[in-house]
Amino acid sequence: MNEGKPRFQRVLLKLSGEALMGEQGYGVDPSMAARIAEEIAELHSLGLEVAATVGGGNIVRGISVSAAGMDRVSGDYMGMLATTINALALQNALEKINVFTRVLSAIEMKEVAEPFIRRRAIRHLEKGRIVIFAAGIGQPYFSTDTAAAMRAMEIGAEVILKATKVDGIYDSDPKKNPSAVLFRELTYREVLEKNLQVMDSTAVALCKENGLPIVVFNLLRHGNIRDVVMGAEIGTIVTA
Questions:
Q1: Residue 160: helix, strand or coil by DSSP?
Q2: Which stretches of the chain drop beneath a pLDDT of 70?
Q3: Taking Cα atoms as reference points, which of 84, 81, 83, 76 lies closest to residue 139?
Q4: What is the count of structural domains for the chain?
């Protein structure tokens, strides 16, 4: 592990909506948002250019409301709006600790967020601002995992940091199987063939086609985000 220099310069952090929920059963826990903001700010202080995407599962998940009988397209748009609520919550938490942040939305809502324009996003990063992407890619039938992969490639990120509630990718659900085995390294092909469910198959295939590494790690362990970018062997890395 190199304590002196981060191994990445530009990263995309993929957060689930549930991460912002904390111990609550629904919505955003301000204390959890503040904790995540502090860890993002620490990355920023290392000189990294940081972008983030946030899911909306703590408010509404399109595929779930579709399964309950609602129109899938309507459900997906509701999910995109939920991601925007979460993006604004994270922006607020970051700006409370004096980190300049911009929310860029794939659905136009000029009163609360800038429209997503690739060159504008890159310029914000170059100026040292945190960029939070909201509303997925603005189209139904695409998950926030796929949106994260697409945005990461569009801005030239060197890695996707996939924050979860477990220590990495296991061969089975560690919450249900105490004997589940943690993988330290996997290939994209292994993730797809083993159907390991860390990200949806479209997102993994996109990363595979473009050689974009994915690091899956436990967000709940304080300091893990910093340690990952500094080269510690934390979580699971997925590469070619």
A1: strand
A2: 1-3, 62
A3: 76
A4: 1
Per the rule left: phi > 0, alpha: psi between -120 and 50, beta: everything else, 53 is beta
Q: Yes or no: say if 28 and 86 are a contact pair by the CB < 8 Å rule.
A: yes
In a domain, 20, yes or no: yes
Q: At 200, which CATH number? A: 3.40.1160.10
Does this model's pTM top 0.85?
yes
Establish if 4 belongs to a structural domain: no
CA–CA separation, 75 and 146 (whole Å): 17
* pLDDT tens for each residue of 132-160: 999 999 999 999 999 999 999 999 999 99
Could you tell me where the beta strands, DSSP code E, fall in the chain? 10-15, 49-54, 101-105, 114-115, 130-134, 159-164, 169-170, 182-183, 185-187, 214-218, 236-239
